[in-house]
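Sequence in, structure out.
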Amino acid sequence: MPELVFNTGPIIALTAAVGSLQFLDKLYTDLLIPSEVIDELKAAGDDCAELNAIRTCRALRITETPVRLPILLASQLDKGEASVIQNALNFKVSTVVIDEKAGRRMARLHHLKVTGSLGILIRAAKLSLTPSIESCLNRMQSKGIWISEELKVHAIAATKS
């Protein structure tokens, strides 16, 4: 059974932070990415950094067919976030990886646990599987990913506890 279901934003953020997703192989054994998320990533081209990173991470697997979305999810969220939540429910996965506020809120309304790119980076940094959290955050920001100063301070502090 998959441990986590990933949304588009965290895939982009983690690839920006580390340059690959191979570190996930040391944290998890079975991670799910909905085909809808892959479709969103393909908008940047079949050879984008994120799709290449997915190809080299053994723990990640992609759902083969799009999921049928209930009207509530389809009307409130983008297709990627909605499919993450529905796939988690279908596969009985308790935790989703979503960075966006609306998606996180909707996941919690569906009784799912939520983590995000920073939660995964903190866990990996504590195990020395990635560069320092500061350098990861700087790389993310240099690639246009917005992180509040408060979140940066929290993430840095979390790796030291």
